[in-house]
Amino acid sequence: MEHKVRFCERLKKLMEEKNLSRRKLEEVTGLSNQVISYWLLEKRVPSLHSLDVLADYFGVTIDYLVGRQ
């Protein structure tokens, strides 16, 4: 549970820093708006592929996204 919360908090922070809505994040990453919503609501955790896409887009590590850094 702790990693899910950290991921949610980190994703929200990164989106705010880039002034991104869920829809815009979907457009720039190709990830589904619905799955992004689930992450932000802490209902699901991202796949390794999704973490890789997000890390590349935001210029951070996967460890950062999941709260290990």
Explain what you see:
The protein is built from 5 helices and no strands. The chain has 69 residues and is an all-alpha fold.
Proportion of beta-strand residues = under 5%
Alpha carbon gyration radius? 11 Å
* Helical segment count: 5
- Indicate the low-confidence ranges by residue numbers: none
Distance between the termini: 17 Å
Mean pLDDT: 92
Instruction: Please give the largest β-sheet.
Output: none
Question: What attributes does this structure have?
Answer:
globular, 0% strand, mainly alpha, 69 residues
What is shown here, in short?
This protein has helices at 2-17, 22-29, 33-40, 48-58, 62-65.
Which helices and strands, and how do they pair?
Elements: H1 2-17, H2 22-29, H3 33-40, H4 48-58, H5 62-65
